[in-house]
């Protein structure tokens, strides 16, 4: 096969004609065979299966029955009050309220001059190699700092915190 730049004008014209003819034949084939097959319903279905049930019922009525049905009084629609749905959520919980129990802090050692800043214990991850806790939406482990307090230890009862030389037990209120 020769490279395209070395072909003669007659060869190029013949090749162009063949490509155009193939495109026209492809388009004709699409219009004659493929497109009608895509829009035609499957031949395995009967006419009754293709027509919805409500039209089959309508088709089975005589003209006299249809005339009577068209003039028959329609039932009045139900009053709007019966359609209105009223929700009472007084006994339900607030959708954005936390389902976690509130936290309670107790001071382990004496002295009332130091108070722990408000910290929320949201969960304890127990049973791992290193227990962790979620305090104010932050995952902490022993030795980490949160809210100015250092986490001393974490056990199933709560989190032991060291704050300004005092120890506090942060635990969930059940």
Distinctive features:
single chain; 174 residues; alpha+beta; SH3 type barrels; five-stranded antiparallel β-sheet
Spatial sequence of strands, sheet with the most strands: 1-8-7-6-5
Radius of gyration: 41 Å
Strand fraction equals 15-25%
Tell me how many strands there are: 8
How many helices in DSSP terms?
Answer: 5
The helix fraction, in percent, is 25-40%
SS class: alpha+beta
CATH architecture of the domain at 103-172: Roll
Q: What is the level 1 CATH name of the domain at 103-172?
A: Mainly Beta
Instruction: Indicate the mean pLDDT.
Output: 76
Taking the sheet with the most strands, its summary is: 5 strands, antiparallel
Structure description:
- The structure is a single chain.
- β2 and β3 form a beta hairpin.
- The strands form two sheets. Strands 1-8-7-6-5 form a five-stranded antiparallel sheet, with no helix packed on it. Strands 2-3-4 form a three-stranded antiparallel sheet, with no helix packed on it.
- Helix content is 32%, strand content 23%.
- The chain has 174 residues and is of the alpha+beta class.
């Amino acid at each position: 096969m020769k490279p395209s730049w070395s072909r003669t004008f007659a060869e190029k014209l013949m090749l162009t004609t063949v490509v155009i003819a193939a495109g026209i034949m492809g388009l004709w084939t699409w219009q004659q065979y493929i497109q009608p097959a895509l829009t035609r319903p499957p031949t395995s279905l009967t006419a009754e299966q293709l027509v919805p049930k409500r039209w089959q019922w309508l088709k089975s009525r005589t003209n006299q029955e249809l005339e009577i049905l068209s003039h028959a009084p329609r039932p009045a629609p139900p009053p709007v009050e019966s359609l209105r749905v009223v929700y009472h959520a007084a006994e339900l919980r607030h959708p954005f309220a936390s389902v976690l129990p509130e936290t309670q802090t107790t001071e382990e050692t004496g002295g009332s001059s130091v108070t722990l800043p408000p910290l929320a214990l949201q969960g304890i991850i127990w049973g791992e190699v290193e227990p962790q806790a979620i305090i104010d939406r932050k995952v902490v482990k022993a030795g980490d700092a949160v809210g100015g307090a250092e986490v001393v230890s974490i056990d199933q009862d709560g989190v032991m915190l060291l704050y300004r030389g005092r120890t506090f037990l942060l635990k969930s209120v059940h």
